[in-house]
Specification:
By secondary structure, the protein is mostly helical. Helices cover 86% and strands 0% of the residues. It has one domain. Helix 2 packs antiparallel against helix 7 and helix 3 runs antiparallel to helix 4.
């Protein structure tokens, strides 16, 4: 039995869409890094920014490795591999930007850089992440969080901008991960 070319193209498009749905699975890194951001904020509020920096020096790379292993295992199980290059570049960009602005701003005694820099690097990364994952929620939250943190800074609450801003980023990221988890195609 021969298929109509239009029906065949429609079927191919449905298969492509289904494959993208299976690969578009980003709840794990959102929930992991959201929880880490809240923990980092609590550490910063209780023990100071230096301790929060040490926490991130350990937790950031470990979280990146955990995320990489998660996707490697998941994609091996699926038998469908996505190009990891853009995701790795985005993740490394966030980490390098956060460490450079956080530690660099502190070393140069520039609190605006050490406080806002990491959060704005995360916002920029979330914009890229939202584009890669086709997630409007991530992209909108990136812009909204950046505006909120800059607003806190401008209203004269620089410490709140760092620690409370980090807690806000973490809570929103975790929530987006939870909401997306409900919509993901399970394997």
């Amino acid at each position: 039995m021969q298929q109509n070319p239009a029906d065949l193209l429609r079927e191919i498009e449905q298969l492509r869409s289904r494959t993208n749905q299976v690969l578009n699975h980003f709840s794990f890194p959102c929930m992991l890094f959201g929880a880490l951001m809240v923990m980092g904020a609590v550490i910063g509020l209780m023990a100071g920014g230096d301790r929060a920096g040490i926490f991130w020096a350990v937790a950031g790379p470990l979280g990146g490795v955990a995320t990489g292993l998660y996707y490697w295992r998941r994609e091996s199980k699926l038998g469908v591999i996505d190009n990891p290059g853009p995701w790795i570049a985005m993740s490394l960009g966030i980490m390098v930007g956060c460490f450079a602005t956080g530690f660099g701003g502190a070393a140069l005694n520039l609190p605006v850089v050490s406080t806002l820099g990491p959060l704005l690097c995360i916002s920029a990364g979330y914009l890229v992440f939202g584009r890669l994952a086709h997630s409007t929620a991530l992209s909108v939250s990136a812009v909204a969080l950046a505006i909120a943190v800059i607003g806190m800074w401008l209203t004269g609450a620089p410490d709140a901008a760092g620690h409370i801003g980090s807690a806000m980023y973490g809570a929103v990221t975790f929530f987006i991960g939870l909401m997306h988890r409900r919509q993901e195609v399970q394997v």
